[in-house]
């Protein structure tokens, strides 16, 4: 009976270990494999680890009762029950927004994790054998009596309860190997770039707007040149490396490289890989303050691209309407400013915005003017398109030849993308937005529509000490622009809720949902005589 109980306990514990391990690996992957960042995430989500922590301590209660079969068996049954709960809570099958990707790195970490778990089970078996031998010498109970000993259960249970620690530990153990692997791939990418001496490389960075700029610039340059851009959000060292090794061909004339950063010097690292001749900085603002630490660090990191380009004698194109950028611009004589305000080298004026698109006039540094029209909504999109026009014009493409490519520019997926679902509802998908400036711009776009304006949002994250303040202000602004507001996440959206309330909004028109699916179901059921225009502002990843 004791042998059977131990087997049942071990099987349940191992199943729970696998399921919990997969969930922890998923969160680690979403946190960019960064152990410090993952540790901060674990601290924020400490409640999910309460049960394993309690059971880790509770299992030691077995020791005093290891010779009292009835009490020991009863306690083991209780532990089995809670282990089964851990397995059920973490079982695969949930539809994640971004599921776990079994990359080569992830597989290597899982192997290391498997070895660590195996060590616990080996110790459990060794302890059991020792107990059998001692028991036999002392003339004690039957051979299977050793399973009543507490230590085999404690070793197996500890493998489960310590899984949240063993997963990041696997990442730390593998760090030297992963660094060597990454360096090999990065050096190979550099070799490939060195074999393309005529390739012109342009880096794009910014707190927001960089992905949109990349797509817009690719559309304009592609009208005359053979271009390659980093796909989707491939803006990390390995993302850039993969793009170069997988997609770059000798026939490409321009390589448009998006550069993302969450920490100081990460743009410098990307410049060391892509080695851009020119650069574009779309914006600098309070994003990823949690990892940057201060707005000064954000500014200096973004301008690492400008420093690299300056050293190479290239041009850096800067959003001159951004106060932080404009303050820094005089340090770079190679800077070309673009924006809507006076004093920019490339300026957009006479902007006409409707729910069908935007028209504007561009004035070049030499005084030439040209009227442009595009399908994109909002004045803020004019800034990014203007930056793309400025750079493309600088390569030798005339403003006249750029009018047609500008008309062809489509909204980047999940960035103020207009999705007409037919019937009584249209979505403005701005799910990839998570910064104060972008949120304000999205609310302005929502205000263009003569309809029932509905906002669905979980708010903004990774804003450090300013997160509560900025979300409070977002709530105040939403109250002015929206007829109905749906907040996603009761705890996350408290500052937004308070901001809405502070603005004197009718709180009967505010609904707080537990999930995005519940929010969308509420929007679908919401009754109104007008057509519903639904702004989906930000969509937090699974680790929030």
Automatic annotation (TrEMBL):
Transcription as UniProt keyword: no
UniProt-listed InterPro entries: Mur-like_cat_sf (IPR036565), Mur_ligase_C (IPR004101), Mur_ligase_C_dom_sf (IPR036615), Mur_ligase_cen (IPR013221), MurCDEF_CellWall_CoF430Synth (IPR051046)
Keyword terms of this UniProt record: ATP-binding, Ligase, Membrane, Nucleotide-binding, Transmembrane, Transmembrane helix
Domain Mur ligase central: 204-391
Domain Mur ligase C-terminal positions: 414-536
Ranges in coiled-coil conformation: none
GO molecular function: acid-amino acid ligase activity; ATP binding
Transmembrane spans: 6-25, 46-65, 71-89, 109-126, 146-169
Superkingdom as given in the UniProt entry: Bacteria
UniProt-listed SUPFAM superfamilies: MurD-like peptide ligases, catalytic domain, MurD-like peptide ligases, peptide-binding domain
PANTHER family registered for this protein in UniProt: UDP-N-ACETYLMURAMOYL-TRIPEPTIDE--D-ALANYL-D-ALANINE LIGASE
Protein name: UDP-N-acetylmuramoyl-tripeptide--D-alanyl-D-alanine ligase
């Amino acid at each position: 009976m004791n042998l059977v109980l131990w087997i049942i306990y071990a099987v349940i514990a191992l199943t729970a270990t696998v399921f919990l391990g997969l969930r922890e690996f998923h969160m680690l992957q979403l946190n960019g494999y960064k152990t410090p960042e993952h540790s901060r995430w674990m601290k924020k989500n400490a409640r999910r680890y309460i049960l394993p922590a309690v059971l880790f301590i509770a299992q030691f209660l077995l020791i005093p009762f290891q010779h009292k079969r009835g009490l020991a068996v009863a306690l083991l049954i209780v532990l089995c029950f809670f282990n089964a709960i851990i397995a059920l809570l973490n079982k695969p099958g949930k539809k994640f927004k971004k599921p776990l990707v079994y990359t080569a790195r992830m597989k290597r970490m899982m192997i290391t994790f498997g070895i660590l778990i195996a060590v616990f089970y080996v110790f459990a078996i060794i302890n059991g054998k020792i107990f059998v031998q001692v028991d036999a010498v002392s003339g004690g109970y039957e051979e299977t009596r050793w399973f009543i000993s507490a230590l085999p259960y404690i070793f197996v249970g500890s493998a489960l309860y310590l899984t949240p620690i063993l997963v990041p530990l696997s990442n730390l153990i593998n760090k030297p190997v992963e660094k060597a692997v990454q360096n090999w791939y990065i050096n190979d990418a550099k070799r490939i770039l060195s074999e393309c001496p005529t390739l012109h490389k342009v880096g794009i960075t910014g707190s927001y707007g960089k992905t949109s700029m990349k797509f817009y610039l690719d559309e304009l340059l592609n009208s005359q040149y053979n271009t390659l851009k980093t796909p989707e959000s491939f803006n990390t060292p390995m993302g850039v490396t993969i793009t170069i090794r997988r997609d770059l061909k000798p026939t490409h004339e321009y390589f448009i490289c998006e550069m993302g950063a969450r920490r100081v010097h990460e743009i410098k690292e990307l410049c060391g890989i892509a080695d851009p001749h020119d650069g574009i900085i779309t914006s600098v603002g309070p994003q990823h303050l949690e990892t940057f630490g201060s707005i000064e660090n954000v500014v200096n990191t973004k301008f690492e691209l400008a420093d690299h380009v300056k050293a190479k004698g290239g041009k850096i194109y800067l959003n001159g309407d951004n106060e932080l950028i404009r303050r820094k611009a005089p340090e770079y004589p190679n800077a070309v400013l673009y924006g809507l305000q006076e004093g920019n080298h490339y300026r957009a004026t006479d902007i006409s915005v409707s729910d069908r698109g935007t028209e504007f006039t561009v004035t070049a540094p030499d005084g030439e003017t040209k009227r442009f029209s595009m399908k994109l909504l909002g004045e803020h999109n004019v800034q990014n398109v203007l930056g793309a026009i400025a750079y493309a014009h600088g390569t030798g493409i005339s403003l006249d030849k750029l009018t047609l490519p500008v008309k062809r520019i489509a909204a980047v997926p999940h960035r103020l993308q207009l999705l007409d679902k037919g019937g009584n509802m249209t979505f403005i998908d701005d799910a990839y937005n998570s910064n104060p400036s972008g949120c304000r711009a999205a609310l302005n776009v929502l205000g263009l529509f003569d309809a029932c304006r509905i906002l669905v949002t979980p708010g903004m994250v990774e804003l450090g000490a300013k997160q509560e303040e900025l979300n409070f202000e977002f709530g105040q602004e939403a109250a002015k622009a929206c007829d109905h507001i749906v907040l996603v996440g009761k705890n996350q959206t408290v500052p937004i809720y308070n901001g809405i309330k502070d603005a004197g909004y009718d709180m009967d028109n505010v609904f707080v949902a537990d999930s995005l699916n519940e929010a969308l179901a509420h929007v679908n059921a919401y009754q109104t005589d007008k057509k519903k225009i639904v702004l989906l502002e930000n969509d937090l990843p699974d680790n929030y």
